[in-house]
Amino acid sequence: MRVKNISIFLAYLCYSLFMEKIFTITVDNLDATNILAQKFANAFRQNGAFVCLYGDIGAGKTAFTKLVANHLNVKEKVTSPSFVIINEYLSGDLPIYHFDLYRLENEGVKTIVDELVEYSRPKVLTFVEWAEFSDFELPFDRIEIRIDYIDENKRTFTFSCEGEEYKKCLEGINK
Ligand SMILES: Nc1ncnc2c1ncn2[C@@H]1O[C@H](COP(=O)(O)OP(=O)(O)OP(=O)(O)O)[C@@H](O)[C@H]1O
Ligand SMILES: [Mg+2]
User: Fold this and answer.
1) Which residue owns the Cα nearest ligand 1 atom 11?
2) 11 contact partners, CB below 8 Å, separation of at least 6
3) Strands 20-27 and 124-129: what pairing?
4) Of all atoms in ligand 1, which is nearest to the CA of residue 153?
5) Is residue 12 predicted with pLDDT exceeding 70?
6) Phi/psi zone of residue 124: left (φ > 0), alpha (ψ -120 to 50 degrees), beta?
7) Residue 83: what are its φ and ψ, rounded to 5°?
8) CA distances from residue 2 to 5, 8, 24, 43, 69 in whole angstroms, order as listed
9) Of 3, 72, 155, 161, which residue is least crowded by CB atoms under 10 Å?
């Protein structure tokens, strides 16, 4: 557990040092998160993205991913990958890979990180929950979404990125 806490600390440090913050939005309820998810889906439907999701347990990382997947016309039921580490959805407008690294032990991280990097190819949308446990071997160009719990229904989303294309798309969402 201690190792995980140190990782989280380092992740936040890296997060604030390298990523360019594009915008922050506070949503009052799940319906408003759904509107945000729709805009996100529209922005990345064409070219995909590599997305790391940060936030405490219950912040809404899985909820946001599910909503985005629905807007990308995924037919299967989208579920949390907490136990299975990765879920893939190939029935929508583009392939979606959804990782949750929380339960991986150190040994497992190495294998999954190789896969993660493979999934960072163009025209694929990859979401990674608890990316702070990846030892930072992630694609340099990426989107980071931080979700802060405000109250039962209210959340603050902060979107950051590295990469000009991602920046343009995220700025489009905020217009
Ligand atoms: N505005 C909101 N945005 C997102 N989720 C919300 C909002 N309001 C309420 N919720 C609820 O908060 C819960 C978030 O749970 P979720 O499983 O998405 O968390 P998580 O960040 O993936 O946690 P974990 O780290 O355990 O995987 C869901 O039950 C969701 O319906
Ligand atoms: Mg989750």
Assistant:
1) 60
2) 54, 131, 132, 136
3) unpaired
4) 8
5) no
6) beta
7) -90, -30
8) 5, 10, 30, 38, 34
9) 3
**Tens digits of residue pLDDT in 121-153:** 889 999 999 988 776 677 888 999 999 999 999
Q: How far is CA 43 from CA 86, 145, 151, 173, in A?
A: 23, 15, 28, 7
* Contact yes or no for 128/116 (Cβ under 8 A): yes
Amino acid at 45: R
The CATH fold assigned to 2-173 is: Rossmann fold (3.40.50)
Sign of CA dihedral 47, 8, 59, 99: positive
- Give the global pTM: 0.91
